Amino acid sequence: MGRTLRNRKRIGKRVAHSASSDELIDLFKWLKMKVRKLRPTMFLDTGRGLMTKRPIYPGDVIIAIPKPFLITMDTVLKSEVGFLLKRSHLKLNLQQAMTIFLITEKEKQEESVWWRYIKVLPETFDTLAFWKSSDLCLLSKNVYKKTFAALNDLQTFYDEIILFLSSSKEVMITFNEFRWAWYCINSRSIYYDCDSSPYITDTNKNIALAPFLDLLNHSTTAEVEAAFNKNNNCFEIKTYNSFRKYDQVFISYGAHSNTHLLMEYGFILPDNPHDVYELNYDEIVKVAQNLNLQYIDKKKRIIEENEINRKSWKLIFKDDTISITNQKAVKNMSQIILQQELLEIRSVFVKFPSKDKSRLTPHQNLALDLLKIEENILQQSIKLLQ
Q1: Which end of the chain has fewer CB atoms < 10 Å from its terminal CB, N or C?
Q2: Which residues contact 85 (CB under 8 A, 6 or more apart)?
Q3: Can you count the helices (H) and strands (E) in the chain?
Q4: Apex CA 290: angle with CA 289 and CA 294, to 5°?
Q5: What is the torsional sign of CA 302, 305, 307, 310?
Q6: What is the residue extent of each domain of the chain?
Q7: Longest Cα separation, the chain
């Protein structure tokens, strides 16, 4: 990996529960995997992960899961949940359907074909959806708004499931059960190409669960290729990194910021090259209006009437150089906005119940670490503008 322990260390763990060695051995036997290369190990810096028992080289396939052990759309449609889907006039997306499937299979315990996999899943998560309200208030304004929006979406997905199940007296699920299953899928699903189904919406339909793959931890330096191999009927992960004997083997969950990692997986990374600090559109407009920038109201109207994707604004840097007058105006506005954001971030620090990290809860420590990372991004950005 070529990274020091300090750089590779994760802040927080993706799950708050680790399966026992016996449960994992049972899972391997069920998967009929000899796992010659990899062994589950508890690491000081990341918690549970996979250690290689021999050198791994670029181009090596590190894991191959046979298709019968993947939970896919077909798996759900062939189950009792599929029966409900086929007789209902309401449609769910695949993650919603898979959520019901996971809960019903968990209730069966040993009677479920999938029990050996389900019993190694975490009982709870460190993702923001599982935090107490008092801890969520320790997040920066931007992250809190994102979390609030995500929680509203989560409630909507749950309400749709309850409406779907209202005609069935056999299956009822609580919000806590739903939240658990939703994040099992959210944090563990792989991309798996599925054909369309008349019983499932096309939204987010290309997902599957692959037992054992979730033991692999994330690194920003990992380079992998993950795909279904039709020749051997397995979902494979191929690495383009080198690992020495006894190294932890990493994969990449994607080029994600720490906010995304915390919301979806429950951890953050120091020195994350994909980290960003997102500025609020309304705050940008407010500062521009206060500075009486030319044509700002007209520009605002054009943006909103045409629903211009704000993520594409950075494309201006690929165009011709802007005028010196506009450069100065942009620099001045940027300095004001960044200073305001920095003051906003620093105002949150006083909300923590203690300055001693050892006296904070794990979630409070995660919130504090993320705030410090955001503060550093703003400080470095302000320096670049000076």
Answers
A1: C
A2: 76, 77, 91, 92, 97, 199, 200
A3: 14, 9
A4: 45
A5: positive
A6: 5-264, 281-385
A7: 72
Which of 270, 334, 72 is CA-nearest to residue 189? 72
Backbone angles phi, psi at 178, to 5 degrees: -60, -45
Q: What is the CATH number of domain 5-264?
A: 3.90.1410.10
Instruction: Give the whole-angstrom CA distance, residue 36 versus residue 380.
Output: 46
Q: Which pTM does this prediction carry? A: 0.87
pLDDT tens, per residue, the chain with 386 residues:
232 223 334 555 444 344 567 787 788 788 876 556 888 888 888 888 899 999 999 999 999 999 999 999 999 999 999 999 999 999 999 999 999 999 999 999 999 999 999 999 999 999 999 999 999 999 999 999 999 999 999 999 999 999 999 877 767 899 999 999 999 999 999 999 988 999 999 888 899 999 988 889 999 999 999 999 999 999 999 999 999 999 999 999 999 999 999 999 999 998 899 999 988 777 877 877 777 777 777 777 877 777 776 665 555 555 566 678 778 878 888 899 999 999 999 999 999 999 999 999 999 999 999 999 999 999 999 999 88
Contacts of 162 (CB under 8 A, 6+ apart): 173
Residue-level length of the chain: 386
Q: Which two tokens stand for residue 336?
A: 């004001």
Torsion of CA 187, 188, 194, 198, to 10 degrees: -60
Which H or E run contains 198? none
Contact 117, 27 (CB under 8 A): yes
Alpha-carbon radius of gyration of the chain = 24
What proportions of the chain, in percent to the nearest 5, are helix, strand and coil?
50, 15, 40
The count of other CB atoms within 10 Å of the CB of residue 251 is 19
Q: Please report which helix (H) or strand (E) contains residue 107, including its range.
A: helix 94-108
